[in-house]
């Protein structure tokens, strides 16, 4: 069996084994270094013009998680998981433009002329977009990074559950989040204490069309 085939099978296994887990072992803690490894893989996700409009708040402190549980509709997994990762969307992603393209130039991925062209063009485009459009871009891109985060966690043997049901304004107040950012999703991360609740999917033939 080729390495490519084995890698494909491993990836397929991760996708098929990932389920939303709501029961966690509260005594199990994931090392901060492992959480950083998961996030370093997550941020390899694609984004519009590579502007990476995401930020993360990792809540590990037990008392803080108890308070967050109340903000998140009393969902048990907020308190019992090893950590909760809040994914924020950056409405002002254009502020990342120079950093992103200068980094690519320094890495040898683009020449100076192309770097300046992209900086100028992207600044002109993104800074003049209506806020609602920028919010939609950030929401889309944070969805990509969140899915990649959950797959990375599963590949390392951990479980997750994404949660959109929380009071976003209370979250912003509690964690002093700047108006530049939008709390998009909370992801509980930890070791399952019970099997995930299994679900089915609408058959592919009902949701696909070839033209």
From TrEMBL:
One of its GO terms (molecular function) is oxidoreductase activity. Keywords: Oxidoreductase. Transmembrane segments: none annotated. It comes from the Bacteria. It holds the Pfam family Nitroreductase. Gene3D superfamilies: NADH Oxidase. CDD domains: MhqN-like. InterPro entries: Nitroreductase (IPR029479), Nitroreductase-like (IPR000415). Residues 15-191 form the Nitroreductase domain. The keyword Magnesium does not apply. The keyword Transcription does not apply. Belongs to the nitroreductase family. PANTHER family: NAD(P)H NITROREDUCTASE YDGI-RELATED (PTHR43673), NAD(P)H NITROREDUCTASE YODC-RELATED (PTHR43673:SF3). This is Nitroreductase family protein.
